[in-house]
Amino acid sequence: MSEPGRNSRLMRIVQAATKIEPNELGATLLSFLFVFVLMTAYFIMRPVRDAMASDWSDAEVSLLWTMTFFFSVIAVSLYGGAISFVRFNRLVPGVYGFFALSFFLFYFGSTLIADPVLVDKSFYVWLSVFSLFHLSVFWSFMSDLFNKHQAPRLFGIIATGASVGAIAGPLLTAELVNRIGTDMLMLVSATLLLIPVPIIFVLDRLKITALGNADLNVDLSAQQAIGRNPFAGFSLFLKSPYLIGIGCFILLYVAIGSFVYFEIKNLFEVFTRAERAQLLAYIDFAVNLLAILTAIFVTSRIATRFGMATTLALIPVLMAIGMLVLALSPVVAVVAGLQVARRAGNYAITRPGREMLFTVVDRETRFKAKPVIDIVLYRGGDMVSAWAFTLLTTVVGLGLGGVAAVGAGIAAVWAIVGVYLGRSYARRAARTDSNLAEE
To answer: Residue 434's pLDDT is what?
Structure first.
């Protein structure tokens, strides 16, 4: 068989399996590579960042989370302002180039600055800020690349690259940290962040030549408005019991996450920083592998068979049980297992369910109130929960078991709020369907 004939047959197989048209294949593969590299770079640094926390007291970490909250709000505002006067196809590579440069500076700063603790704490906050942008900017770029007919067919395939990268990053950290050290991992990650820059320019060219989307321009007006004033949605948020319920759900989720994070931080004090990074990398690997398997085989079945109330309450109930087990047996293996179950359950079940809650609100609410919940409340919840944990351990004097018992109570309330939201969602969805039927 001739080479062109073989290629044509292969393309037909690919098209039948993935629904990718021949003219879309190059852009889809490059987009997959883009997000794969992005997530690999982030998850290489994430265990390095979290390994640092065990060197600091609960109060010190709480202060860093407070700084992260304020820097996150500032960074989102600056990014939204930049969109208004910088072309989006120039802004995106600029964002990744800027963050890559910043991590190079952190690497060299760790060898040049006399106070390594200052560098470590600055890196801890800065990577937390970066975590807000690395995926949101990517998906904004994707919405500017593919049109509304291509996106439903291709975005699921592209998103798989993020999941694979989230597995590859922790594995690289676990394998390399004992060989090259945590500082060199920062350099590896910064170098990886440069790879998307030329990919972006190639994709921008394919948008015109292969995809035929020269006239497609992402609508960033809503993002600009939000960016300039991230508090614009507060009035909408405070007027809606439904949105307040979502906000409470987020705050309770954040509280449980913060408690588990601090428990791990304190239990890992006995290990070296390299050992912590390796253990945390294995946790990240387990989380992402379990999340992929759950998302493929479990999530849709739970949501369609048992409804939204069960979907939102499932992980909180599991966390309440897990916290009680931790209160009775406060050891590393239990808290690590709890962290894997919590994060994997969030990625695969709770987060998709939470995002579905916004499908029954109007467009203005999605654009203005949702960022208040997702960014301001989330980061504010981090800050408040961190100080609450510090209060319980340093002032009240509770140990790991006592704090876990408090966490079990919080998780129980979280489950109740999830049931309330699930039922509210069902009523709103029913009203929407009824209105459409009448029209």
So the answer is: 62
Residues 6+ apart with CB under 8 A from 143: 151, 218
Specify whether 172 is located in the same domain as 247.
no
- pLDDT confidence bin for 29, thresholds 50/70/90: very high
Whole-prediction pTM value? 0.78
Mean pLDDT of the chain: 84
Output the CA–CA distances (angstroms, integers) from residue 18 to 15, 212, 411, in the order listed: 5, 20, 40
Looking at the fold, whether 334 and 378 belong to one and the same domain comes out as yes
- Rounded CA-CA distance 1/206 in Å is 30
Give the end of a domain, one of 230, 245, 266: 230
- Ramachandran sector of residue 362 (left: φ over 0; alpha: ψ -120 to 50; beta: rest): beta
**CB 247 within 8 Å of CB 377:** yes
Expressed as residue numbers, the domain containing 415 is 231-430
How crowded is residue 69: how many other Cβ atoms within 10 Å of its Cβ? 22
| Chain-centroid distance, C-alpha 230 | 19
